[in-house]
Write a structure and sequence with these properties.
heterodimer, A: 126 residues, alpha+beta, OB fold (Dihydrolipoamide Acetyltransferase, E2P), six-stranded antiparallel beta sheet, three-stranded antiparallel beta sheet, 4 helices, 17% helix, globular, B: 375 residues, Gyrase A, domain 2, Alpha-Beta Plaits, Elongation Factor Tu (Ef-tu), domain 3, six-stranded mixed beta sheet, 20 strands, 32% strand
Chain lengths: 126, 375
């Protein structure tokens, strides 16, 4: 199944969708298939400053715990609170309802290191 | 990577395959949580063909096994199987195994996939050092092994056999079915009732079709559905069962592992007895005040899981290490196994687990198993 073409993908399996100066971050289908069923999501709070390569939080699955990384510099402006009640949204709808955080970006140049959809799917078929 | 005779079955059921101990194995089909629940409420089918199967026969087979097994085997009757450890000279754990006794001088061992070649070397060394008349044959690749686990498994088996549902726990029977020989034991690694079956590699595809002919294992609500290694791990953690590489290892003394029932110290006391590899070291540990750590179960607050290697604290003092942990799918609680100092093993003792990322999970020691199947 193809990933959406309206966003870019990191080699650490996050997706980034830009709308104005706000970048929404989530996990790819490939990442979710590797993680298995997500049981707990803990993102840093709104207001936290983030940088490329720095964790924005952790996702736990029934099998493992994994850091989630930002590719942009900025400030977390919103955390997906629906995931605290139902972390399985990350599995069910990783590109939609399973989004993790929104970041108000002051520098998005890190996104240029990300892959477009076709290249990501070719390298990491889910 | 090795593939089991059920490889085609896994692909047909859309398994997510991963490497495990040199084998390409299904981690899950539909999802770990779904498969876990399927085993707890109805039945799961696991391919465990990657586990090693070693035949031990010959005039000295019994004597040989008394030397390599920590637990007595001489009093086993034909048709009985028994859990045992295989130790190293230092009293650490080479592996945990199931011994099947087929006859006076005829045994089958089921060993962990990751330890098979290491054990074969060790067995050969013990055989040769004792000049024992024993034949060791690795049957792993010419056989397949499947586990059917869950409260409704016997309903399905009962359609084909009257005898198997009447087997007691840790008993087995060798059946001739459709011109193939199947060894069926009432054993498992999930804490549920069920069986494990060993059959010829070439016949397993046909056997699965036969067994599942009235079942659509892809359908939700099916009596039996395939389950992968992911669910196998969460099920065994809930059942408080140790796993090599986590609760058991070459550097972990056997007295620490919570399986004292699998150690028969006095077995060299009678005429048919033999001292076993590692026994001296175990005796020394006991004479010096016992093991420095013991395995306990922990229940932690919140939904975060403790993972292998995390430190266990009492107040601010390190008192142990986590060996396995998960958010228990059946209980909805964070559970873990850990080695802790003997002063902290009492049920109810308050402990804390350091995640290593600045957070601490509060918890306490609880009895194992965490989960008990309804009788």
């Amino acid at each position: 199944m193809a990933s959406p073409a309206d966003r870019v993908y990191s080699s650490t399996h996050e997706w980034f969708q830009t709308q104005g100066d706000v970048v929404t971050l989530g996990l790819t289908r490939f990442a979710v298939n590797q993680l298995t069923d997500v049981t707990y999501v803990e993102m840093k709070k709104a207001g936290t400053k983030v940088k490329p390569g720095e964790p924005v939080g952790e996702v736990e699955s029934v099998k493992t715990t994994s850091d989630v990384y930002s590719a942009v510099t900025g400030e977390i402006v919103e955390v997906n609170t629906a995931l605290s009640d139902d972390p399985s949204l990350v599995n069910q709808d990783p590109y939609g309802k399973g989004w993790l955080v929104k970041i108000k970006a002051s520098d998005s140049s890190g996104l240029s290191a990300c892959l477009p959809q076709a290249a990501y799917d070719a390298q990491y078929p889910a | 990577m090795r593939r089991t005779p059920l490889h085609g079955f896994h692909l047909e059921h859309k398994a997510h395959m991963v490497e495990f101990a040199g084998w390409e194995m299904p981690l899950y089909y539909s999802g770990i949580l779904e498969e876990h629940a399927q085993v707890r409420t109805s039945g799961g089918l696991f391919d465990v063909s990657h586990m090693g199967r070693v035949k031990v026969t010959g005039r000295h087979a019994r004597r040989f096994l008394e030397r390599v097994c920590s637990r007595r085997v001489s009093d086993m009757t034909a048709g009985q199987c028994r859990y045992s450890l295989v130790l190293n000279e230092g009293g650490g754990v080479r592996d945990d195994i199931i011994v099947y006794r087929l006859d006076e001088d005829d045994f089958l061992l089921v060993v962990n996939a990751s330890n098979r070649s290491k054990l074969m070397e060790h067995f050969e060394a013990v055989r040769s050092a004792g000049d024992l008349a024993v034949k060791l044959e690795d049957h792993t690749e010419k056989t397949a092994m499947v586990a059917l686990q869950g409260p409704r498994v016997m309903e399905l088996i009962g359609r084909y056999s009257k005898e198997i549902p009447s087997l007691k726990r840790y008993r087995f029977s060798v059946k001739n079915l459709l011109v193939m020989k199947i060894t069926v034991s009432r054993t498992g690694y999930t804490g549920e009732d069920g069986i494990e079956a060993i059959l010829p590699a070439g016949a397993v595809g046909m056997a699965m079709k036969f067994l599942l002919r009235d079942v659509d294992p892809s359908a939700a609500g099916a009596l039996i559905r395939p389950a992968g290694l992911g669910a196998r791990d969460t099920l065994r953690i809930e059942a408080g069962m140790p796993l090599y590489g986590h609760e058991l290892g070459e550097g972990i003394g056997a007295w620490s592992c919570g399986v004292d029932f699998a150690i028969t110290m006095e077995k060299d006391g009678d005429a048919r007895g033999e001292p076993f590899v590692g026994q001296e070291a175990l005796r020394r540990v006991m004479s010096e005040g016992g093991p420095k750590h013991r395995l306990v179960g922990l229940e932690l607050e919140g939904r975060r899981a403790a993972r292998q290697g995390m430190s266990v604290l009492s107040g601010e003092t390190a008192v142990g290490t986590v060996t396995s942990g998960c958010l228990s799918p059946s209980l909805g609680k964070s559970i873990a196994m850990a080695f802790v100092e003997p002063s902290r093993v009492e049920v109810g003792s308050a402990v804390r687990v350091e995640t290593g990322k600045g957070s601490v999970l509060e918890g306490r020691v609880v009895p194992m198993p965490f989960y008990k199947a309804a009788k």
